[in-house]
Amino acid sequence: MDPDPQSRSFRRTMYRAAERLTGRRIEATYRALLAHDTLGADEIRALQWHKLKALLEDVYSSVPFYRRRFEEAGIRPDDVRGWEDFRRLPLTSKRDIKAAYSHEVVASDRLHTRLIERVTTGTTDAPLRFVIDTEMFDLGVARALRVLDWAGSTLGDRMVQLGPIRERRGLQHRLFAHMTQRLVLDTLALTTSSTPLCCPADTSVPDQIDLDRAGRYCRSIAAQRPGLIYGYVTDLLALAAYIEHTGFTGIRPRAVVSSAEILTDPARRRLETIFGAEVFDLYGATEFPAIACECEVHNGLHVLSDSYVVEIISDGRDASPGETGEVVITDLDNRVMPFIRYRIGDAARATDRRCSCGRSFPLIDMIEGRTSEVVVAPGGRLLLARRFATILQEMEDVRAFRIVQERIDRLDVQIVTRPSWTSQHGESLLQRIRALVGEDMEVTLSQVPDLAVDPSRKERYLYSSVEYDIVGGRCYRS
Ligand SMILES: [Zn+2]
Question: What residues have a C-beta under 5 A from ligand 1, the ion?
Answer without folding.
Answer: 295, 297, 355, 357, 359
